[in-house]
Amino acid sequence: MSPSGATTVAASHRHPIVVAEAVVTPADYLAFFEAARLGYYADCGFNYPGFEAREKLAFTLVELDLKLIAPARSGESVVAETRLVSATSSSIRFHQRLLRGELLLVDAKVRLTCSSLDGERLAPVPARFFRDCVARARFCARPWRTRLPEGRAGDSCVLEKERDFRKESRADRRETGIRILRRAADGERDAPQWPRPHAGDEGHLPPLQDDAGLPRRPARRLGYAWPPRGSGSRKRAANPWEAAIEAYGVEPFVKRCIDSVFRYQSEWEKLTDRIAFWVDLEQAYVTYHKRYVESVWWALSQLFEKGLLYQGHKVGWGGAQGGTALSSGEVGQGYKTVDDPSVYVSFPLKAAGDPLLDGASLLVWTTTPWTLPSNMYAAVGASYTYAVVDLDGRKLVIAEKLVEGFSKKIKKDATILGTVDGSKLVGLGYTAPFDLYAAEARGPIHTVIAADFVTLDSGTGVVHIAPAFGEDDHEAHRKLLAAHPDLPLFCAVKPDGAFVDELTAYAGRWVKDCDKEIQAELKARGILVFAEQYRHEYPFCWRADNDPLIQYARPAWYIRTTALNKEALANNAEVNWLPPHIKEGRFGDFLRNNVDWALSRERYWGTPLNVWINDVSGKMEAPSSVEAILAKNPKAFDHFHAAKAADPTLSEHLVVHKPWIDAVTWENPGEAGVYRRVSEVIDCWFDSGCMPFAQHGFPHHNHDAFKASFPADFISEAIDQTRGWFYSLLMTSTLIFDEETRAKSRRGRGIHAPDLVIDAVKMDFAVLAETDAVKAKPGTAFIAKEDLDGLDLLDGATVTLVGVDGAECRVTLATGKKLGRRVMVLAAAEQAALGVKVTGKPDVKPVEVPALPATERVLLWDRATPAPGADAFRWFFYASNPPWNATRHSLSNVRSFQKETLVKLRNVYSFFTIYANIDGWDPKADTTRNADGTLNVATLTELDRWILGELTATVAGVTAGLDGFDPYTPTQRLTDFVDALSNWYVRRSRDRFWASADDVEAAKNAAYGTLYTCLVTLAKLFAPFTPYLAEGIYQNLVGGSGVRGACESVHLASWPSVDQLPVRDDALATRMAAVRALVGLGREVRTNAKTKTRQPLRRAHLVVADRALRAELASYASLVAEELNVLEIAFPGDDEAGTFVTYKLKPNFRTLGQKGMGKEAQTLKKAMAALDDAGAAQLLTTLRRTEGFAAAGDRVGVVVLDARLDDELVREGVLREVKSAIQQVRKDRKLEFTARIALKIAVSDDALRGLFETRKEWLAGEVLASTLAVEAAPSSDSGYERIEANGVELFVQIA
Question: Residues with Cβ < 8 Å from 416, sequence gap 6 or more?
Fold first, then answer.
């Protein structure tokens, strides 16, 4: 036997084993036996002294030495001893007899083996460690409830089964086993208090820590302790989380909280810089800093002095173990579907003065019978009609609309005796279901009240009100307090969730355990009308997932926001909200139904509430700063200074935080008692609401800086913060700066904005071996479809996985069914190659994956595809949606918006630089500008003037949008302009850029000058949205060029002004918009008719109903013909248009009738009938199908293409295809744009060869051929390439 109590034995196992034994209590044994039998200790990873973190220990139950009492046939008890080997049928049968109570366990000795899975020799294992493992089984796995058999005493017990272990998955069992082992090492306060080993004991295990260095959070199943307390009773343990923090130490806990504040600081700062988010990181404010906290204290002291800070009660969801309340986010994590009792109880009315109501009872429905002893009121809807019904001789009051449904539910007829308005019921007294607080009933207590929250969706229309256990209930009670300030609050439940001692039948018992007995009592007393089970969603503690939560009224500090509700509404009226409906809708409704702000929180980390209370007189004071406290007690912070002297690393800012601030006291001269701080911290939302002044330390510091920046001009946050940060900002400003806030116009804008890789397409994934639906496959990595789509990858894509120390392997991606986000099923071979293992947290959340150990995650990297970059990331969020709308973010969506606008802009910029460099164009020698730098319109073509007019309109639109704090609308204007610039201006101007003759030099200079102006202006307009792209364009076009007004950076340049651009010609803009629309329709017709773009057609008919516009468009016929690749353009007159289109207008009578507009429909029908074709064409166009023609139309007009082909058109199409093929060969050979070529074309078709001869000059110019020879067959020269165009075989040679 080693000094530690462990015995090392030889065994034939592959790895060395260690055997340990421990004597445990009977209850511990039973819990441990079941946990071990079901695999809770198998394969549990655990750090052990002398071993690497990656190693594991396997624990196996070997033998049990048991002493028990067995009843003999004679009726006497027999003490017997037995030894069982685990996992045998006899041990299981023995275990079953224990459960049935046939055997009574007195003593148990457990032997375990502990073997290393890595084959290393183990140090001796202390017996205490195994003893704690055994003892913790019932605390962590919690399968049983203990009860003491009648007539027995001591530690002997039998067990009642509470739930079935076998329903849990193997992964759940393994996870629980790991928790048990960690607890055995940590020695948490809620576990049996075994003697701790001395510092020199061999094998002592230090407390485990998580990745952040904090003690590991207690297991989710922790939270109950069941010492025998008599038949059927159990007692809740104290809050385990509070106990765990205190056991760890509040001081080190707070230090760890500070560390967590800055854990991701460097990552945040890198991302901020990378996405070009303009914010002063060097001057960041920190909400826990002393200066910030003192500003918050000042604000609270102002409220205290105004009488707006008071103490009351706050109803909130809390853990059944007692302790602090949970936030709404925490509550939302733990909902389960449960069956609860649904009871209908009668509350007998007292003298009503109405024969109909004499002897009647209110019929009340509740799913929380345990709250009935705390009943204070019954609520009805004042506007509802209630029926008095006869049910089995009882008169019951129920909402009239619910009588039929209730009768069907109970399968009995309820005869209506009469009806009464809900308002007539208000004020009537009734007899409460329990008389626990009957002596304290006064005023409106145990009377009917009116409440807005009463609905007729379910129940009876009469609501049981227990203000201690419901938010609506408590709010109704608080409204009554205004007229009856002395009203008590009935609460028959203690903070630990057990009934008070005064309720003797249920004293000390957990409330939800008493529901059935309360139901039985109500039935015995004749006031239970009906009962059933009600299935619904109910919240459970997310930390202890079998602990149901209860709502409970806890003492809390409030801010009386209702006192300034009118002022808050007035301030909201001055805010320009986007979207506008938030102002009077979501936010306005919230303000109009505002309740007092529940300020305090029961936490260890947060801004301490600066209220000190005299422990004798109860008087309160709220100092506004450390200086104010020192004025009362100069030695108030000596304890903190001593602590900092002992530990110089202690942050100076912690002087105002727990636990040091809790030790601050003072005494006032001539006043008995000591002032001590209340224990609470404040709601972090109040912290955030103080940001406008607290960031400056106001009023203790920086008065001028605060005055210059308050109130804000622009506020941007997510839409879910409407009732969060937006509310806290407005309400805090109203409360603290009410006069100043009203005096100054608030121009804040509520812009609500909603993770993508910026530098590379890569993402971390947690490693899984398999799931129920996905089995591992060598060479394949399975991920969720959502992750595949988000990374813009296809099923079957080959990617790189990166593991520990940069190890890599290539895998094929596949979609895994029912896989969660950010997890990957990976085969053992790939795991070994990467040096990773399966994560110990199979239910890992996506946000938790990056924090997993490096050995439990892999990096998926698509090296073949570049990431879109920061500009694309920014542009997507600006341009995809108005920022208050939901946005589906994915890599593919980012790339889509990037291609739509940013890639187009880059291509136009690339086009300009290529040809400007070829021609040596210099912006300083721009002949389109006057001496003062303004554009000389006389030197410009119509196309130049059109695009510059569109630029002027774009500058005006973007400026107006940004001045109005609207980022979305400007992006749409920019997108439209870039499309017009790329797909119209540049397309239509290519000939000018390519021209070399002197007679077109002026037109070329005008094209260069116009495009240069557009690009430089666009660089400035895009700068707020895509700062990197804008800077690149600006630096290349302006930086260092010596151009007038050039700046060091586009971000330092002046914003474009419409005064520096030509005035927009609206008539020209209208004509060009019509031309572009008709060309677009023509392209649509080609697509629908499946006619190739390069195939010329004979004729296009442009049907334009507007005669004036038709005449103006005639001059653009050649342009449209070129764009549509047709030989002729025709404009049919009014008499010819009927050949292609007809106009027929008819109202949608059904829709108009549904909207109650039947009469208006007839008037509309007559008005439509009176319209001529020109007028009707503005509303509706019907196309007439004609064989051989294809058409499309909109409000501008109709384009009809003659889609019939003849030999001439087919040969012309071949010519265009050959041109395109030659251009592709130039591109494939990477020839310079100006490179000239010698071209030979060999074609056997005589007619086609003749066409090439005829069009030789045109084709040579298009492909930059210095010579072009047309042959009947390829010559003996080599280097011919075969081309197929419209089914015709040709050969070309390019030299």
Answer: 387, 388, 389, 400, 403
Give the C-alpha separation, 344 to 531, whole Å: 6
CB contact set of 263 (below 8 Å; sequence gap of 6+): 212
User: DSSP characters for 265-324?
Assistant: HHHHHHHHHHTT----GGG---TTSHHHHHHHHHHHHHHHHTT-EEEEEEEEEE-TT-SS
Give the gyration radius of the chain's Cα atoms.
41
Closest to 3 in 3D by CA, of 185, 200, 207:
200
Own/partner long-range contacts of 1173-1176 (Cβ < 8 Å, ≥24 apart)? 1173/1105, 1173/1134, 1173/1137, 1173/1143, 1174/1105, 1174/1106, 1174/1107, 1174/1134, 1176/1143, 1176/1144, 1176/1145
Q: Around 1253, how many Cα atoms within 13 Å sit in the side-chain half-sphere? A: 10
Peptide linkage before 579 cis (omega within 30 of 0): yes
Do 1182 and 1142 touch, CB atoms closer than 8 A?
yes
Strands of 1237-1242's sheet in order across = 1265-1271, 1237-1242, 1288-1294, 1280-1285
The reported pLDDT for the residue numbered 431 is 93
> Per the structure block, which two tokens stand in for 359?
């002897």
Beta bridge partners of 69: 79, 104
Q: In what order do the strands lie in the sheet with 715-716?
A: 576-578, 749-751, 715-716
**CA distances in angstroms from 86 to 5, 25, 64, 96, 113, listed in the order given:** 22, 18, 7, 14, 12
DSSP per position, 430-475: B--S--TTGGG--TTTTEEEE-TT--SSSS-S-EEE-GGG-HHHHH
Q: Which of 363, 533, 558 is nearest to 460 (CA)?
A: 363
- β pairing state of 447-450 and 377-380: parallel
User: What is the spatial distance between Cα 450 and Cα 428, in angstroms, rounded to a whole number?
Assistant: 11
Length of the chain as a residue count? 1295
The reported pLDDT for the residue numbered 343 is 92
Which one-letter amino acid corresponds to residue 375? N
In contact, 319 and 655? CB cutoff 8 Å: no
**597 burial level (CB within 10 Å; 0-12, 13-18, 19+):** buried
CA distance 986 to 737: 57
Reported as a single tens digit per residue, the pLDDT across 586-640 is: 788 878 877 788 888 888 889 999 999 999 888 999 999 999 999 999 999 999 9
pTM equals 0.58
**Is the peptide bond between 1132 and the residue preceding it cis, with omega within 30 degrees of 0?**
no
* Neighbouring C-beta atoms of residue 500, cutoff 10 Å: 16
Query: What is the Cα–Cα distance from 672 to 75, expressed in whole angstroms?
Result: 70
Prior bond to 711 cis, omega within 30?
yes
> Which tokens sit at 634?
């100069």
Complete DSSP assignment for 1031-1056 = HHHHHHHTTTTT-TT--S-GGGSPPP
One-letter identity of residue 1261: G
Q: How far apart are CA 1021 and CA 956, in angstroms?
A: 11
CB contact at 8 A, 421 and 388: no
Q: In this structure, what are the phi and psi dihedrals at residue 656, rounded to the nearest 5 degrees? A: -105, 15
Q: How many CA atoms lie within 13 A of 411 on its CB side?
A: 2
Which phi and psi angles does 1182 have, rounded to 5°? -110, 125
On the question of a cis peptide bond just before residue 659, with omega within 30 degrees of 0, the verdict is yes
Neighbours of 84 (CB within 10 A): 18
Residue 193: CB atoms within 10 Å: 9
Helices 1207-1228 and 1246-1254 pack at an angle, to 10 degrees, of 70
- What count of other Cβ atoms lies within 10 Å of the Cβ of residue 546? 15
Pair of tokens at residue 343: 């009871």
Give the residue ranges of the chain where pLDDT is below 50.
1-22, 37-63, 69-90, 113-171, 173-174, 176-238, 322, 740-757, 1176-1182
